[in-house]
Amino acid sequence: MTSLLRDKLLEVSNSPPTLSNEERLALMEACDKAKLALETPLDTTIRIMFGGFESVSLRLAVDMQLIDQAMASKGPVTANELSLASGADAILVVRIMRMLVAMGIFNAEKPSYTCKPLFDLPCATKSTHFPYGASQIPPIVFLPEYFEQKGYKNPTDADGGSFQFTYQSKQHFFDWLSARPRLQGAFNTTMGIQRMERGETWLDYYPVEGKLRANADGILLVDVGGSVGHDVIKFQQRFPNLPGRLIFEDFLTVVSSATDLAAGIEAISHDFFRPHPASVRGAKAYYLRTVLHDWPDKQALTILRHIRDVMAQDSVLLIDENVMPDENVALYQASLDLIMMGVFASLDRTVKQFEELLDAAGLSW
């Protein structure tokens, strides 16, 4: 039985079947559960202890330009070639590449390495997005010291969380980020990757054409905190004939990198902690995508109330967010919430927490 199951799994790994996204996710979940069931207590301990090493190894590979050099080679590349191209010691390259092979990022056929399709991302030609992910590690690592000092109180203020404790800074993460162009660029790219198609989006199930109608001169949609316009661009591509202007707002350091926008799409520099300009008043819809989970209730209420103040009687607020289940929370979901806790002093909310937040902001739902 064991050998038969092993052979079947190897067959699937060597020649993955064509699956729908739902089938793929279900199979991954089943494999994860099987792996956990097979682990001994020692296996589990080792997995947890070594859990952070992968992110650190990946960050080193990015900083040493190993991934970009391997991608540029368009084929197999040796450790010596990577050493010459990057200026790093060959033995250091070998040691980092061991981790990347074990992580499934590279294939190894001695003496060469070949980059796997992980980096064939349509919105990123290089590995520039990974430094952003690595920048989130220190505030999470320091959570034990932070909570010991704070008496194990749940963080409630974005200006006094583990991020500020870790970096001994009064800056919020986004202010800190804007002063670091490389990380800001990595963040913008990461937001684009997160917006890649992963199953259905709100455009698939919300009755856009039935609910959202504006005249040609009016504002159809305002994407608040809309990065470089990923979502309004997709909206226009999906509904090219809907009349009305499409606007996205974000900080100047973000929207300034949005170029070659199609007709009908506008970028506005705006801080959503300040009142919205009159130019976005009375839009048919205001859209928030993964904005509120960056902020605890104190700041989230400010964001929502400023939107409320520019809404017309027939305006709608569309909130596109992660929703934390009340039970059976997957490791990935729990990990995202930990990132919100460590970096933003915030949280991924349950349905009930969203309802309470909207009530407090004076919004009906």
UniProtKB/TrEMBL annotation:
Q: Which residues form the active site?
A: H293
InterPro entries named among the record's database cross-references:
COMT-like (IPR016461), COMT_C (IPR001077), COMT_dimerisation (IPR012967), SAM-dependent_MTases_sf (IPR029063), WH-like_DNA-bd_sf (IPR036388), WH_DNA-bd_sf (IPR036390)
- Describe the location of the O-methyltransferase C-terminal domain by residue ranges: 220-363
Which biological process, per GO, is one annotated for this protein? methylation
Coiled-coil region: none
Q: What is this protein called?
A: S-adenosyl-L-methionine-dependent methyltransferase
Q: Give one GO term, molecular function aspect.
A: protein dimerization activity
Domain of life assignment: Eukaryota
Keyword tags? Methyltransferase, S-adenosyl-L-methionine, Transferase
The residue ranges of the O-methyltransferase dimerisation domain are 48-114
Pfam families the UniProt entry points to: Dimerisation, Methyltransf_2
Cite the PANTHER family for this sequence: O-METHYLTRANSFERASE (AFU_ORTHOLOGUE AFUA_2G17820)-RELATED (PTHR43712:SF11), PUTATIVE (AFU_ORTHOLOGUE AFUA_4G14580)-RELATED (PTHR43712)
